[in-house]
Amino acid sequence: MIDLYFAPTPNGWKAAIMLEECGLEYRAILMRLSEGDQFTPGFLSISPNAKMPAIVDHAPGPDWGDAPVTVFESGAVLLYLADKTGQFAPSPDDLRGRKALMEWLFWQVGNQGPMGGQLSHFRNYAPDGQRDYGFKRYLGEYDRNLGVLENRLEGRDYILGDYSIADMLAFPWAFIAKPLGASLDDFPRVADWRARIKSRPAVQRAIDLHKSQQNGGRHRADNNTVLFNQSAASLRPKTDKSHT
């Protein structure tokens, strides 16, 4: 059994997609981010960055010993699960394949994901009257990353050729292009790639997980100081809460 600490966001979908694709038994623990579940002592012991997704694997296998294994950060979670199951990633002894995987994993977590997250903030959550410059800045960066992906998909159905965790990492932030105020019209390969992945049953199940709990713009920077305007003080553990 794997515990998945999850909220229905692009980053949360990444881990849920991988768990569904692998057919692993897991329990989704809904993180009430607007209420501060991410700052409880129990969760900070799993994810010191106070971000989801994170997992606790209660049966990691003989190489790991008897204690459960905790993994935080979406790229690390997917790489751990790929190595655990032997699925959706080049094997460690495939040096060229592994090198390409690492390049695109780091591209996603260092470029596409953060730029999409900032774009989402200025599109959906920034206070009125304070969003124009940030929105234009991050829309340009988001589009630049779409261009990187468009070029990579020339002659390929998927980022590495075969469907892999590189696709699972990148898909969620392309999936929500329209709500971010972006368009895939100039990126036909990305649009086709997005459609291929969206049609997968495992992906559909992951996207539907706790769908009713999506923020939908209810919690914004001007009405929720738990989600926004955090500082180092935010990482001082709060009283633990039970999860639903």
UniProtKB/TrEMBL annotation:
Domain GST N-terminal, chain residue ranges per copy: 1-89
InterPro entries in the record: Glutathione-S-Trfase_C-like, Glutathione-S-Trfase_C_sf, Glutathione_S-Trfase, Glutathione_S-Trfase_N, GST_C, Thioredoxin-like_sf
Pfam family membership, one: GST_N_2
Region named Disordered: 212-244
Residue spans of biased composition, Polar residues class: 223-233
Domain GST C-terminal as annotated: residue spans: 94-218
Gene3D superfamilies: 1.20.1050.10, Glutaredoxin
Coiled-coil regions listed in the entry: none
Descriptive protein name: Thiol:disulfide oxidoreductase
Originating organism: Sulfitobacter sabulilitoris
Organism taxonomic ancestry: Bacteria, Pseudomonadati, Pseudomonadota, Alphaproteobacteria, Rhodobacterales
